[in-house]
Amino acid sequence: MPPTTPVRPAATILTDLLDTKLDIRFDWAKQQLIGVATVSVRPHFHTQNQLILDAKGFDIKNVRLLTKGKEKTLNYTYDKRKLIVALDRQYTRTEPYQIRINYVAKPYELAAGGSAAITSDKGLYFINPLGTDKNKPRQIWTQGETEANSCWFPTIDKPNQRMTQEITMTVDAQYKTLSNGLLISSKTNPDGTRTDVWKQSLPAAPYLTMIAVGDFAVVSDKWCDKEVSYYVEPRFEKTARAVFGRTPEMMEFFSSKLGVAFPWEKYSQVAVYDFVSGAMENTTATTHRQEDTQLTQRDLLDRDDDATIAHELFHHWFGDYVTCESWSNLPLNESFADYAQFLWAEHSKGANEAALEQQKGLGQYLYEAQSKREPLIRYHYESREDMFDSHSYSKGGRVLHMLRKYVGDDAFFAALNHYLTQNKFSSSEVAKLRIAFEEVTGEDLMWFFDQWFMQRGHPELHITHSYANGQVNLHVQQVQDTTFSPIYRLPITVTVWNNNQSTDHRIIISKADQTFSLPAAQHPSLVKFDSEGQLLAQVEEERTQDELLFQYYHARNYLQKYEAIQELRPKVGDLAVSGMLRNALNDDFWAVRQSAADALRKYKGPEGGAIRKDLQRVALKDSRSQVRASALTALASFPNEDFSGVYATSLNDSSYMVIGSAIKALAKNPTVSARERINLLQETRNETLLTALANYYALNGTADQYQWFLRRMNDVSDEDLYQSYFENFATLMLRMPPVERDKGLQRLESYARTGSKFYVRLGAYKALGMLADTSPSLKSTMRDIRDKEKDQQVKGMFNMLQ
Predict the structure, then answer these.
(1) Cα torsion 694, 700, 706, 711: sign
(2) In what order do the strands lie in the sheet with 15-27?
(3) C-alpha angle with apex 738: 733 to 741, nearest 5 degrees?
(4) Which terminus of the chain, N or C, has less C-beta within 10 A?
């Protein structure tokens, strides 16, 4: 079936972007940038008599040609998207030239756009510009991916361009600045401002240019002879190193693994408010969301941000050093950065943590694949923002892991080195990656790249086995719909266990229906398909209860234990299975213990008393907060049973996650003494506690908590507003007298109409829907919200909720 979306080739290069110099200052009140851009370019091949630049929503003051120290005014046409400059003559590819543009950028006035991954495309953002929000600092920052940097400076905004750059920023002297490259000068001005000059001498794609302005504390670090620094809000200065301090070790690890030393002048990371993406790998200056990286020591008991820090750092090889030539080839950036999370976990935390990373990624892709199946490399798509999905990230990372397992570690990293050195400081497409692997391994790998990168879908396998006459007959069926997906070639390891002895068999699946005969002296204790846990597939593998129990007790890795626990959950009442889960509660790896606690929810088997004691012990004494929290949730699943003493003790836990789980447990079983202690937490800054309190007050709150919901709404992340806070607020409002609901309804209506993220608008609308039957006028308000929603996808979601 031919694609219904348009073909999206790499941008045709008429002109090479060579260098950009910006001299900029800011009007906070108007949320505007006043700039002078000096752009150095040359014709790519064909002679040119005009220059076409991307420039979105500017006021253009003038355009001049710089030649021999003089400026010459040029004519231009401008439609608020493209600036077309008429040159003074024809220029050949051997004749570079410079254009200077005086302009005002007004990103705040641009129409809203974006996607689920990058929720806005205005390029330049002023946070709390008038200083009226006491809960946020004043900041300016940018987000260029995909093609949003042309909202604040004129450029050729395509990933197959590269430029050096120099940015001169004039700001109020109280603020710090950050940009790409090195700070080469800083001068205090008589008017109370300061002018900083940042210069990047190595070329990078325009979307990787960034600036940040704010009241930052700068924590200095070092890797080899290069500056490493962390920009955070001053109150988080003391914990910045605890969050970011493994960065130099990551730089050393990745440099060594790839055989290519970190190639850029320096490496900074900055945490900003209201960031429109998870994080962004701007060359030498990564931007992070403050809620992910500005953590207290207590926050760090529950989580770190190593995965994201490793992800964005690895982009400085895959994405910045070598850049996808088109958004169709985005997995050449994102799949590698996703896989860096696995590599770092494997190096720093061990094989089990890496397997957990593998499991998360596979789950994210398979969840998305329920509604969307596309090739990794997509030359057909509706919007370039569609490329930022779990295919480009999670599926791509798992595909790279399979490639590594197939060619072996030495060849895998040698091929990556070859790819990077052959394509450094240039753009690339997937064929170049394949060729690099083929040149290193000497093997034609078209089959691998074709089925995994160029075709949609994934294997769906049904696995059975039987034993007769000294051999195991392993039956493998590929049951995916081959109208859209190929019959896969799958090199895989199968392990046959006889008692405590295991034998690995390497097989290659290449047909829709195949049977493999594997020697075995006696009936096997277990036949484990994909025993390395490396395959990206949906696998239905038939095993008996005894085989699954054997798998758990003889597991080689976390994935095998987790799989046994999940497969046996329906039989949790069986004594052997509950015994396995009790054993798992004492496993060395925390995620196994957590899985066991989750599996024991609502347990009704013969070991009820012992299991409840085990869960209470785990809830109070396990070394990992994630496990303690899961144990509390398991205890709360037993109806009409009183564990209030455990919950009350857990309110004193060092972990916010554990306290949050205790509060949620107490929401269903409130006590007077616990309520008083919970109320003392109302002013917390921790989002885990905020959402837990909202859940508690939804079921147990009064008019006092109605005011609390209104007051704390601005402190809750957009994700938490959508996932639970709005719904909990509406649940409480149903118990409020109608006359008291007006402020809450007005607040929800405001979010539903003007929320900056589509899912925030959706969450607020759903909350209004919960209250619709309480007010005749509310239904007409909701109809008006639907009618005026400009995002057609969101409007469709609104209509589905009627």
Answers:
(1) negative
(2) 70-73, 58-67, 97-105, 32-43, 15-27, 163-172, 193-204, 182-188
(3) 50
(4) N
The full DSSP string for 193-256 is EEEEEEEEEEEE-GGG--EEEES-EEEEEEETTEEEEEEE-GGGGGGHHHHHTTHHHHHHHHHH
DSSP symbol at 91: E
Contact 95, 15 (CB under 8 A): no
Domain endpoint, select from 167, 193, 215: 215
Burial 732-752 (b: 16+ CB within 10 A, else e): bbeebeeeebeebbebbbebb
Pick from 271, 296, 299: which is nearest to 285 by CA? 271
Other Cβ atoms within 10 Å of 46 Cβ, number: 9
Considering just the CA atoms, what is the radius of gyration of the chain in Å?
Answer: 29
Torsion-angle region of 511 (φ positive above 0: left; ψ -120 to 50: alpha; else: beta): beta
Within a domain: 237: no
pLDDT tens column, 399-452: 999 999 999 999 999 999 999 999 999 999 999 999 999 999 999 999 999 999
pLDDT per residue over 140-155, tens digit each? 999 999 999 999 999 9
Give the pLDDT band of residue 1 (cuts 50, 70, 90).
low
Please give the Cα distance from 306 to 249 (Å, whole number): 11
Strand order in the sheet with 176-179: 124-127, 139-142, 211-214, 176-179
402 and 464 belong to one structural domain: no
Around Cβ 7, how many Cβ atoms within 10 Å? Answer: 9
Closest CA to 211 of 147, 280, 262: 280
Provide the pLDDT for residue 119. Answer: 76
DSSP 640-665: T---HHHHHHHTT-S-HHHHHHHHHH
- Indicate if 601 and 631 belong to the same structural domain: yes
Question: Is 464 found in the same domain as 449?
Answer: no
199's CB contacts (< 8 A; 6+ apart) are 165, 166, 167, 181, 182, 184
515: preceding bond cis by omega (within 30 degrees): no
Q: Is the pLDDT of residue 2 over 70?
A: no
Backbone angles phi, psi at 573, to 5 degrees: -75, -15
Provide the 3-class DSSP secondary structure of residue 37: strand
Say yes or no: 376 and 490 in one domain: no
Helix (H) or strand (E) holding 534: none
CA 441 vs. chain centroid, Å, equals 32
**DSSP helix/strand/coil, 323:** strand
Residue for token pair 């076409």: 52
Q: Which helix (H) or strand (E) holds 522?
A: none
- Cβ-in-10-Å burial (0-12, 13-18, 19+) of 647 comes to buried
The residues near 469 (Cβ < 8 Å, ≥ 6 apart) are none
Q: Are strands 76-78 and 139-142 parallel, antiparallel or unpaired?
A: unpaired
Tell whether 126 and 165 lie within a shared domain: yes
Range of the domain at 722: 686-802
| 2 occurs within a structural domain | no
CA dihedral over 370, 376, 380, 386, signed as positive or negative: positive
**Which residue is listed with tokens 């209506």?**
749
State the average pLDDT over residues 10-31. Answer: 98
Model confidence pTM above 0.85? yes
| Other CB atoms within 10 A of residue 370 CB | 7
Q: Who contacts 566 (Cβ-Cβ below 8 Å, separation ≥6)?
A: 595, 599
Q: Are residues 626 and 696 in the same domain?
A: no
Both structure tokens of 344 = 């770092």
Residue 337 lies in a domain: yes
273 conformational bin, left if phi > 0, alpha if psi -120 to 50, beta if neither: beta
Q: Could you write out the DSSP letters of every residue in 451-475?
A: IIIIS----EEEEEEEEETTEEEEE
